Structure formats: C-alpha cells, structure tokens
Amino acid sequence: MQMTASGPLRRGPFRWLALGVLLLAAAGVFWWHGAGSGQAQPGGPGGPPGMGGQAVSVTTAVARTGVAPVTLSGIGTVTPLRTVTVKSRVDGELMEVRFTEGQLVKEGELLAQIDPRAFAAQLEQYQGQLAKDTALLENARADLSRYDNLAKKDMLAGQTKDTQGSLVRQYEAAIRTDKGLIDNAKLQLEYSRITAPITGRVGLRKVDAGNMVKASESTVICVITQVSPISVLFTLPEDQLPAVLVRHRAGESLSVSAYDRTMSKRLAQGKLTTADNQIDTATGTVKLRAVFDNADEALFPNQFVNAELLLEERKGVVLVPAAAVQRGSKGARVYVVDAEGVAKSKPVTVGMAVGEDVVADAGLAAGEVVVVEGADRLRDGAKVAVRNSGPGIAGKP
Q1: What are the start-end ranges of the E strands in 250-389?
Q2: Structural domain total, the chain
Q3: pLDDT for 378
Q4: What is the pLDDT of residue 12?
Q5: Which of 14, 126, 193, 320 has the fewest Cβ atoms nearer than 10 Å?
Q6: Domain coverage including residue 292
C-alpha cells in the first residue's frame, strides 16, 4: 500500500484544533471550580466587610455636651484713638531734636527745642515796662491822695483832682497791659519747647535741627500715634445690628477678638465700645468700634484684621466632630456604634460649626459613640473594630 506525502499534512490541522478545544474546556472547568470555592456565604470569612464577616477598622469619638459660641465676623482696620501732628507754634530756628524715630514718648516729654533767646529778651523787656508803670502808678496814687486832702479843704480845684484820678486809672490799665504782654511772652517761651501732647509712638522725623520753622507754615516736626489702647473699626451686615444693639444697650460687655488675614492666629482681645449712628446705604453695613489694651502692640495702626464679635454662648448643646457627619441627597447622617460594636446610620440635624466640631441640633444624644474615620466603608448593621477612640470629641479628653 502506497502512502502519499499529503496525508500527514491533512491530519495536522485537526490535531491542533482538538488540542485547543481540550485546553479551553480545561480552563472553563478550572474557573468554575475556583469561583465556586471562593464565593463566601454571608457570615463566612470571605463575605462583605462588617456584614457578619470581617470587622471594619474605624476611629470613633463620643458626642458630648458643650458650649457653642455664637459669633459675628467682619472685616476691620486697626485705628488709633488719637493721632497728633506736631507743629511749631512760634517762629525760630530749630536748635535741637530730642526724639528718635519710632520712640515711645510720654505726654509732656520734650521733643524739640526752638531758639528761646528772642522770647526771653522780650519777656525781660515787658517785665521792665511793668516795673516802670508800677512805679508811676504808685506816684500817681500818692499825688491823688494829697489832692484829695487839699480838695476837701477847698485848697485845690476839683478839676485837678479829677485829672489826677484819671492818670491813676491810665497807669492801672498800663499795668494790666504789661501783665498781658508778660503772660504772652512766657507762653511764647513755653512754645519754644515742643513737648508731646499725648503718649504714643513717634513716626519718622520730618525736619532736622538747624532749619527755620514758622507757625504760619505747614512744617511738621513729627506725627505721634497712640498705640495703647487702640481700636479696631469693623463692619457687620445691617441685619445683624439689632441683635448686637439689644445686648450692648442692656449693658452687656461684648467681647471682640482680632485675627490675622488667614483667621489662623488671634492677635488681641478687646471689648465693643460703640456703633456708628447710621448704616452705609452703599454696602448695607454698619461700622462698630472695639477697643483693645494692646500692651504688647500686637495691633499696628492701619493694619487689616478680621474681627469676631462674641454675641452669646449657647450652653448644653451636643457637639460631634465635623468629620463624623456624612452629607448626601437624604441629608446629614452619622454612624453610631452600639455596645455590641455594630454601626447604625442615623439622620441628624446639623447646626453651627464650633472649631472642628458641629452642633447636632437633633437626632443625636450626648454619650453616643460616632464613627469619625472609616465611615465610607460601612453599611448599616456592619461590625466595627475601634482602632483609636477617645472619651472626648475627635479624640480630645
């Protein structure tokens, strides 16, 4: 029997096809058995986390009763209570500048000295004129006394006596004029000593010693700004004003805190003193002034700050960490862990924020344990394993 060369070649493709079918069948059987053995029944070790299977690791915190401060915030500017521009009140040469730039000076402290010699000479001149007129007055009064005695004895005409009396009154008026000139000269001499009218910090020097200064010119010696105490002018919306005025007019001392631009650091704490007498119609806001002691000079004049007015403190509210609240289409909810370690979802009504916490107005009681971290992997009724919990809010004692 003769075999052709084409026989084995025809049988080859069918052999490879059969081998491929066998491999596919084996893979299907392996996948079926593997999937069946890996599928866990509810409550088995391979079930969904927390649902009768593995416990979900979470961080919890205990809702507690606390105090919620009700605050009103506004943008403010540090404004000095007094700012004085120091100028010369007399004409003369500026002989000496006694202050340094940025120095804290006290009221009445000598700042600069203007040449006093011209005023001292004028004072001496007026004092000499006063002495002269005083002597003339004494002589005129003596003559008037003699004329009066002679007139009583009909030894002198009454007109001569009246003339002498008029001369006495002229000298008395001259003495009053001399005293006025002396007082004015003393005042000019005092003005030659430029002193600080208020206690505050001196700014940059505007004029140097050796220059001529005049009272009629706008030459500024320096500017003094009161830095302690100091005030902050801030604004609030007009609809918040009635609540503030009710407490302020009742005599309550409302606390105001000044924060930096980022609201991360409190710079100072003071008290509300007054509100403006009208509302700005362009912005719908009203200005308020708070006064700060500023002993450490943490507030600088014209500095931008954020002002926070403490209106009231709500006591006995339930506080929970803000991270524990999950918000969705059905509102705010939290996961509460019971004594058996089972998490249950509860709807809550969330109020104002207090730092990193929020006020639970309804739906949650103090003492309940809420899930802070890991809630995204929970389902209602899931088992949890607490990895880091504390007795307070967000791990705080």
Answers
A1: 255-259, 266-275, 285-292, 304-321, 326-328, 331-337, 342-347, 349-354, 357-362, 369-373, 382-386
A2: 4
A3: 84
A4: 54
A5: 14
A6: 72-81+226-314
| Radius of gyration over every alpha carbon of the chain, rounded to an integer in angstroms | 47
Q: Output the pLDDT for position 162.
A: 85
Query: Which residues, listed in sequence order, are joined to residue 258 by a DSSP beta bridge?
Result: 268, 307
Sign of the alpha-carbon dihedral angle for 128, 131, 137, 142? negative
pTM (2 decimals)? 0.68
For residue 359, what is the domain's CATH number? 2.40.420.20
At residue 282, the pLDDT reads: 94
Q: What is the pLDDT of residues 193-207, one digit of tens each?
A: 999 999 999 999 999
Domain membership flag for residue 33:
no
| Regions in the chain scoring below 70 on pLDDT | 1-19, 21, 25-53, 388-397
Q: Which residues lie closer than 8 Å to 325 by C-beta, 6 or more apart? A: 332, 333, 334, 348, 350, 358
**Would 44 be classed as within a structural domain?**
no
What count of Cα atoms within 13 Å lies in the side-chain half-sphere of residue 50?
22
* Residues near 94 by beta carbon (within 8 Å), at least 6 away in sequence: 88, 112, 113, 114, 207, 208, 209, 210, 211, 212, 213, 221
pLDDT of residue 137: 93
Would residue 51 count as lying in a domain?
no
CA separation (Å) from 284 to 78, 196, 235, 278? 21, 40, 10, 10
CA distance 350 to 346: 12
Q: What is the CATH number of the domain that holds 107?
A: 2.40.50.100
Give me the pLDDT at residue 50, please.
55
Q: Could you tell me the CATH number of the domain that includes residue 232?
A: 2.40.30.170
Contacts of 53 (CB under 8 A, 6+ apart): 40, 42, 43, 44, 45, 46, 47, 383
Q: For position 256, what pLDDT does the model report?
A: 97
User: Are 322 and 249 found together in one domain?
Assistant: no
Read off the CATH number of the domain in which 187 is found. 1.10.287
Residue 377 is classified by DSSP as G
What integer pLDDT is reported at residue 283 of this predicted model? 93
- 87 and 207 in a single domain? The answer is yes
